[in-house]
Amino acid sequence: MSKLSKPPTFKPFKLALIQLGNIGADKSANLKHAHEMVMKAASAKPDLIVLPECFNSPYGHVHFPVYAEKVGFTPGEPYDVERTESESVKMLSSTWLIGGSIPERDPKSDNVYNTCTVYNPQGELVAHHRKVHLFDIDIPGKIKFKESETLTGGSTLNFFDTEFARIGLGICYDIRFPELAMISARQGCHVLIYPGAFNMTTGPMHWELLQRARANDNQVFFSMCSPARDLTAGYHAWGHSLVADPLGKVLCEAKEDEEILYTDIDPNVFHEARTGIPVTTQRRFDVYPDVSK
Ligand SMILES: O=C(O)CCC(=O)C(=O)O
């Protein structure tokens, strides 16, 4: 994970985003439904399946410590999925799968993180990302949210290699910090995937704009996978799971209900964008040397 080796050759692949619905208070029911939807998505034989942010628990800072699981890894150490205590990790091991995110309790520090886990087709947990930027906002009369009341921010940037692409990870609010996407792209990621759950205020304002911007800035494919909207839940997710191409064009977008979106990722678009508008080789670090390389 996240070592600077040569990226794999970027090859065409089929991506499936599961905009999961019916996420309620019952964790086993959430996992059962997620499993059914992963199996349903897998029947179309995609190369990579993605679940949304917080797919096993209601979204809200009060819920995170209650639903948090010991996932079975320590950053910097090899993963040991055999010894995991996490029901969610056991359910997820099936194909190339970005397991959205779940609240994770670190066994040593007892800190709770919002964590994305990634599995290869052998069912091994091969990468993880702890949400770096916590969603603490207050838009009077609209939305107030404070993840930092119960969560700790991660402190690493993460990507993983498949046989078809190098894929960078982030979670939701991480998209507002272009540095994360920029550094992942400079480390050779072809595709950036951020499970996310925007809301009814910032969703219409920024969900599409930010994804198209990160895609276009970095000339990569960019995708966020959201839960479906549930107006009976405490948090109303925007939905609209989306994939943008390296020119910033929206390739596909869900509405607000439960849905599986399939997209063919074509490396030619990536290469043509970078050849036609060669910003990746025209940067002037002599003018902005403080920007991380
Ligand atoms: O950035 C936003 O507007 C929403 C972020 C969010 O919902 C999250 O980080 O979970």
UniProtKB/TrEMBL annotation:
PROSITE patterns: CN_HYDROLASE, UPF0012
Domain of life (superkingdom): Eukaryota
GO MF term (any one): omega-amidase activity
Pfam family, one: CN_hydrolase
Residues of the CN hydrolase domain: 13-267
Any single Gene Ontology cellular-component annotation: mitochondrion
BP GO annotations: asparagine metabolic process; glutamine metabolic process; oxaloacetate metabolic process
CDD domains documented for this protein: nit
UniProt keywords, alphabetically: Hydrolase
Family: Belongs to the carbon-nitrogen hydrolase superfamily. NIT1/NIT2 family.
PANTHER family in the record: NITRILASE-RELATED, OMEGA-AMIDASE NIT2
Protein name: Carbon-nitrogen hydrolase
Phylogenetic lineage: Eukaryota, Fungi, Dikarya, Basidiomycota, Agaricomycotina
